[in-house]
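Recall the central idea of this unit: under ordinary conditions, the amino acid sequence of a chain determines the structure it adopts. In this exercise we apply that idea directly, starting from the sequence alone.
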Amino acid sequence: MKIAKIAAATTATAALALGLAACSSSSGNEGASSAPSAAPASSGPKFAGQTLTVWRLGDSNDPSQKYMDDLNAAFKAETGADVKLEWIPWPQVNDKFTAAAAGGAGPDVTEIGNDQVPLWQSQDALAPVTSVFADGDQAQIPANVKSLETIDGETYAVPWGAGTRAVLYRKDWFDKLGIEVPKTWDEVVAAAKKIQDKYGKDVDGFAFNGGSDANHLLGSMVWANGGDYAKKDGGKWVGTLTDPAFKAGFEQYTGLVTGGLSSKSRLTQNSVDISTRFANSKVGMYLTASWDIPAIEKNSKGKVKADQLAFFPLPDKNGKPAPAFFGGNDIAVWGSTKNAELATAYVKMATNHQWGDRYAKDGGLLPIYPDTLSALSSDPAQAPFAAAFASAHAFPNSPNWTEVGETKALLQNAARSVIEGKASADEALAKANTELESILNQQ
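Accordingly, the structure predicted from this sequence is:
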């Protein structure tokens, strides 16, 4: 197994979730589905008495636990096998994955962020699950939805729920100040300034994210301007941070601070930090998803409620929804499993149309099946996410991306150097581009 170099696993995988304020991850589980009726190809008495270990990432909540209880009961009914479910808190995920990849006690099946598949596949920690897509419901999953999961012709994880982000805003503030939902970036800026004029400059009209998940915000602005981080050319990664289109998005991003919409004293805050300030009425708008809603209600001690909040797609300068990060949560067979057949059967059941749709609904994600996804465009609460997801992009499909985006925080550091007046945008991006190419191309 390859353990030569493993970058820190992203805790931003949690930020791949999305949904709606009225049906957040803390909502109930009405209309739970019954067990699938189709007979599984590999189930039967031969699995009776066996136990499969399954990892879910993050902390349990009522809808997600109920989903897993129902799924595992249905799996046992069809295969005879028991499921040992373990919830892995986010701060422990990287250590658990690293230990398991090094030959320690690992799962048979694990939830995994789609942006982490290239990293762990490069460590031989994931088993191919290409066969899952050969027939049945999974054959309907679009090829682009599994682009991060497909490497050299094999697919190493199955999409479970898709995710993207939209702008969460204080609807009650907008109503009080007579602000219409912004349709263009200029209108976002005007709304942010109006909020600050009313509630004070210590309030971020639109919060700058410069922390571990900063590239979700920066990326949307870059992609909206026609730029990207890097491209593959002749088997090597070539950085495109110095292209005019990337620079335009980068300057829009740093302009949140240099233009006074967010404070220079909070250059390293991530979405968790921002949500805490939002709960304390110190933020008017920021890019996130509905998994933040329960925490905001809790941290505000009931002062900020879900019905005071709403979402809209981040608009580009021309009034179209800006492309969002093509995020998602996957489920995969761990490479060292002793029962790949049973583990693959579990993955196939969990991701069929019925259980896949329910995973997305109960977890506040977008469904990965086209017919279910298309139905969301007529849902006022989900429409902002569906619009953002329609033109979603992914970060470079490299096992070293986490080192770029989080461990070494190349773009975050470049932005800080510009905001603090230590470098021009051209200087900062040229330096970052050289480092990006070096990291992405390392073996």
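Residues 1-44 have pLDDT under 50 and may be disordered.
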